[in-house]
Amino acid sequence: MQLADADAMRRAFYRMVGARPVDPALNAFGASQDDVANELLTEGAHEAQRFMIGAGYHGWMRRFGPLVLDEDDEGRFAVLPVDFLTAQGWRRQSALEDASGRSWGKEADGRDPLSRGNVYWIPDYTTLRFGRGALVPTEVYLRYHYFHPTFGSSEETVDFPPDARRLVVCMAAQAAVDEDWVPGQEEAMGRIDRALAKARQRARRVAVTSKRQRQVQEPPVFGTRW
């Protein structure tokens, strides 16, 4: 079944957990209709993104900058964009580049605050730090993967490859099971686990296909949209 939009994904989520938007178990959290589903689908989307990016998926990319550098007792740093999910490259290639697009620096182990030279690390979702003595270009840009938009927000859109959207629903359902309100908890866990395994296989195929296409396509366009 094709999950064409956010409403279709909400319906699929309710079916998978065996609930309805008006169920008391959902409203007991003090939320209005669909709030719990939207929260869990957003969480599921972010986990699904991490899974697909880890499998080599080429998407959800933006270029941010030039970075505005500041300094504190720990050295120089820059504030990350608010929708930052993870840097591109996963340490295989620097996520930073100069104004011409030339790669700069190398990602270091953030557990070593005394890292020196042309290195950087990202200790959390808000900050990027530079090694002491790093020769940072006058203009430096960050290539990163951005968080999927929040379900139920004014910016709601399904920014996910159609053939992998089932993974979002399954991961949202798994998060719902962890909250211990899903009807028929034991039976639901088995059903959701089986569906999740299938969704991961399918999503992995989508990611591998994207990775192969990436090896032969033109330079990436930042800001993927469907």
Question: Would you kindly provide a written description of the structure presented here, covering whatever features stand out?
Answer:
The protein has 5 helices and 10 strands; from the N terminus they run αααββββββββββαα. The chain is an alpha+beta fold. A hairpin with a 5-residue loop joins β8 (119-121) and β9 (127-130). α4 (165-178) packs antiparallel against α5 (185-214). The relative contact order is 0.21. It has 2 domains: 6-58 and 149-214, no CATH class; 61-146.
SSE map:
Blueprint: H1 6-17, H2 24-27, H3 35-54, E1 61-64, E2 69-72, E3 75-79, E4 84-87, E5 96-98, E6 103-104, E7 106-107, E8 119-121, E9 127-130, E10 140-146, H4 165-178, H5 185-214
Parallel strand pairs: 7-8
Antiparallel strand pairs: 1-10, 2-3, 3-9, 4-10, 5-6, 5-10, 8-9
Helix pairs in contact: 1-4, 3-4, 4-5
Give the mean pLDDT.
87
> Strand-and-helix sequence, N→C?
HHHEEEEEEEEEEHH
Shape: elongated
Please mark out the parts with pLDDT under 50 across 5 or more consecutive residues, or reply none: 216-226
